[in-house]
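Hi, here's the filled form for the chain we discussed.

Project: internal
Contact: R.S.
Residues: 384
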Amino acid sequence: MATTSKVIGKLLKFKGFKAVNLAFKRDKELHIAVKPFKNGCQCSQCGRRGKIVRIRPEVRWWRDTPVGGWTVWFMSAPREIHCPTHGRVEERLPWADQYARVTYRYEYVMLRFCQMMTQKAAAGLLHIAASTLSDQLHRCIKRIRADHRIRGLRTIGIDEISYCKGHKYATLVYDLERSVVLWAGEGKGRTSIDKFFDTMLSDYQKQQITAGCCDMSDAYIGAITAHCPNAALVLDRFHIVKALNGAVDEVRKEQWREANVNDRKALKGLRWLLYRHSSTRSRKDTCTLRSLDKGNRRIYRAWRLKDEFERFWNYTARWAAERFLKGWMTAVRRSRLEPMKKFVETIQRHYDGILAFIDTGLTNAIAEGINRTFHRNFVQYERT
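And the returned structure, exactly as it came back:
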């Protein structure tokens, strides 16, 4: 039996503890009696060794990850010890948290499964009910996040995601320096973002924030301005470019509606071509767009203005960027393209926030990448 227990320990890769007995039961269950290496007796809070005070007669059970279709259970009777610092406590268990009923390995596999699939599918792989997995998941996340504190926050990003096919929204706050999600709240208005600043940050932490990045939402702009007095407001580059692309597309739509059947053949397929950045276009695509100089002057003018605006993001000196931006806005006003003029009005409303990008180089690009993973997990959670 000792040899068998040793083999089981190596196969299941036990670390910090070993198997002392095992039994195969009906319904494909494997019961393994485990204990810490050496004499254990480490304090569950500080890790110091103490003297054994009491050996409990009752045996506790922990569910481990399934192996080969078998449900694995760990058995042990934790001892009470006397810690020089914390007094009488239960000894530390290397395979599970103090109050958990599942092992660390089980929690890790559960979290990984829930990232990749729905909770219902994960519950099937773990051989438990979906409601049981949901309870275990919430307890695990709550325990892990209990010791998390927001420290050293300097730059924040605010954005929202939609779920339930766009019928519901969630507000996300990021630490852009560390590329992590700090907080998620239901809704996307000023009330939602105020909850973060009121409940998660102290007045001192708010004063330490030096920059905040968001889209052109009045709710997010107002929240950063009101709660972070020392923060520079930076409007996200992605949303500025998105608004510009929208203006160019409006010009294309206007010309499409006014064109006859023969002219529409020349305009077909331009939508995504106009969206493309100059660095990602092929030579053939550029030639197609240049041919608009004779085919449709208004779309051609809108495209040239859009391409010229790309230069703005490459400036490093604020005075040079401001000079370019003023000249570009003047050119747009003379273009007689109403959608482009409306975009210039947007720039005027958020002039300082756009120029702040030159000083900080801050964007929500990292947040947008995190959003893809967060949105997928959020949708899977809602489905279950």
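Let me know if anything looks off before we file it.
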